[in-house]
Amino acid sequence: MLESRFDFSVLKDPSWWHWAATVPLLALHLTGYSWALPAAIGLCVVAVGYFLHRLKRVRPYPVQVRVAYLALLLCGMLPGMNWIYWIPLVGTTAMVLVGYCPLLRLLSICPWNRIGPLSWPLVWRAFVREPCAGGLVSWPVDSSVPVAACCSLGK
Predict the structure, then answer these.
(1) What is the model's pLDDT at position 155?
(2) Mean pLDDT by 10 residues, the chain (155 residues)
(3) 130, 64 Cβ separation under 8 angstroms
(4) Closest Cα to residue 135, out of 21, 13, 10?
(5) Would you give the distance in Å from CA 43 to the centre of its chain?
């Protein structure tokens, strides 16, 4: 049986705090606090700017994830699209808690991020592989697989 443990090292990662702050902002927006969405969007704009400045390209996953996330938040501002905020709320909560980033996995199968053709086995592997490092709770993983923080500049 796998035993989970708290990984308090994520508390030193500013990227983790960006995601951790976004979760309650989205939750507050969904419960009717109108100021929370602009705050979440502003936080994401700052994160996009920071990672773009730091990495100098859009291609690295930390930049792609933040650009796509910001686009998703902006999409939700369209009439009738408020429901879409539930998707980043659930995904970001998973990222913060266990390091599972559904958006990163979706981006990994996009044409510009893969070499081979899109296939069901590729999609399956993308979505069921173990969570990355970077969540507050972690489980022992296969030591032959390199573990890295998916959406941060961490090791």
Answers:
(1) 41
(2) 78 93 98 98 97 94 95 98 97 94 93 92 89 79 51 52
(3) no
(4) 10
(5) 14
